[in-house]
Amino acid sequence: MLSLVLIGCTWGGTSLLLSVLSHEAKICLETILIFFCLAGTTLIKEVEKVFDALDISLEKGRRQVARIVGRDTTELSEQEVKKAALETLSENLSDGVIAPLFWLMLLGVPGMMAYKMINTLDSMIGYRTVRYKDFGCVAARIDDAANWLPARLTACLMLMGSLFLSTSFPLSKTSLAGRFRQMCYFSHAHLSPNSGWPEAALACLLGCRFGGGHSYHGEWIEKPYIGEHERPLHRDDMKAAVRLNRLAEAMMLVAVMAVTMAGMLYAKC
């Protein structure tokens, strides 16, 4: 219930604040809020730092990846650290960029702010551990609903983007239809109804395997594998994933701008 109150207050408070501002101040505030709600660049930099830290030592890599993942990292191997970073990168593309832009496009800045509150609550308390499973259940279910369509849209944007970055994915020689079938198959292997889509898309495009069990807050959570090929991950894989993220973000921004301009033209008619 507290989750619903916080989400409602975020929506209502943002709507009320924007309604009392002048046109110029409203545009300025909306621009600032949109800027701070999009987390694509920040996460990309953090993932790059993980790979940089691993070049120094495994321990530094573990500490760095702990900044962006919820799992316990003290016992992770070098490959598990890299997997965790790339899994988070793909998931964040949906949670941190595509989904906020999706709700901005549908419901404006108040809708985007409400979504960010939903996502924040899920990140804080939406775990499947004994400690959080009851209290965080509502937040997790709302987050699942809010991300259902954006997660699938993200995966499709990644597949479309891969057509323009074919040299970055040398291990993925299948057709677009083949990639789509692989993605759909492995997306259902994830415990989350949404996170599996961008993770499956990246795993299929890189020709690698994500997932597997990990410890969260001291409790072991078993997870299925996503992807067919267990292989070492390298810096080139990270660079390819970053390029794909950037392209997917750009494609979504173009879509949002097109819808916004169409709405403005329609309003003038």
TrEMBL record:
GO terms for cellular component: plasma membrane. The chain crosses the membrane at residues 97-118, 247-267. The keyword S-adenosyl-L-methionine does not apply. One of its GO terms (molecular function) is threonine-phosphate decarboxylase activity. Pathway: Cofactor biosynthesis; adenosylcobalamin biosynthesis. It is a multi-pass membrane protein. Its main location: membrane. It is found in: Cell membrane. GO terms for biological process: cobalamin biosynthetic process. Keywords: Cell membrane, Cobalamin biosynthesis, Membrane, Transmembrane, Transmembrane helix. Belongs to the CobD/CbiB family. Converts cobyric acid to cobinamide by the addition of aminopropanol on the F carboxylic group. This is Cobalamin biosynthesis protein CobD. The lineage of its organism: Bacteria, Pseudomonadati, Bacteroidota, Bacteroidia, Bacteroidales. The gene is cobD.
